[in-house]
Amino acid sequence: MHFYRRWQPVAAISFDLDDTLYDNGPAIVRAEQWMLSHLRSEYLATAMLDKPRWLDLKRAVLMARPELRHDVSLARQQTIRAAMVEGGMADQQASREAEQVFAAFLAERSKIEVSESTHQLLTRLAERYPLVVITNGNLDLVQAGLDRYFTLVCKAGAGARMKPAPDMFEQTRSALKLPAERILHVGDHPETDVLGARLHGFRAAWLNERQQPWQQLQLLPDVELTALEELAELLL
């Protein structure tokens, strides 16, 4: 643990999810493999869909609708729909099928592994602080077994822009009825988490398990952690 600023007690904690509370990479890789396999095997319209074509369609969807860059769920659903329409499926049917495929993808994507030590830490923290999620992702917290720890879940999309934009930080501050400086945001990403928190008045705890150089930071956090479990020493 390394401090960049004089530590002051906080009254609430917000958490990033992906690569902060669990390793997100394996779940995303597995879910995307499942999705492409499912689309190829279950629909004639997408029988020839491969990863390069999927990425081309995704880029085209985001170019046509830039606002979807702030909504990973709707962006994926619209890309699935675009693949089906390109393959000859009627628009209305493609919309219905894309919604169903996305729901199944989300279930696969939410099969993440959370360590017992993380569950224990969140249990202890939740007994003393309001805990909030601020995420750019779309994990189903109920399926992942994480919902019971959090009083508020803020996800990008539906009008809320991704971190480091202020939207979800302001939503959190308003819901908790606390000054921003009394809220500690914990996350792994130098820009979306550290910069986002600091720009909007939150305290920032940078989870730097990969030992990234601090020089890449645009603004320094209050504290740098090498393991999530160090929060117990800091806050309990």
Automatic annotation (TrEMBL):
Domain of life: Bacteria
InterPro entries associated with the record: HAD-like_hydrolase (IPR051400), HAD-like_sf (IPR036412), HAD-SF_hydro_IA (IPR006439), HAD_sf (IPR023214)
Record carries keyword Hydrolase: yes
SUPFAM superfamilies from the UniProt entry: HAD-like
Cofactor(s) required for function per UniProt: Mg(2+)
GO BP terms in the entry: riboflavin biosynthetic process
One Pfam family it belongs to: Hydrolase
Keywords of this entry: Hydrolase, Magnesium
NCBIfam families: HAD-SF-IA-v1
PANTHER family for this protein: 5-AMINO-6-(5-PHOSPHO-D-RIBITYLAMINO)URACIL PHOSPHATASE YIGB, N-ACYLNEURAMINATE-9-PHOSPHATASE
Protein's UniProt name: Haloacid dehalogenase
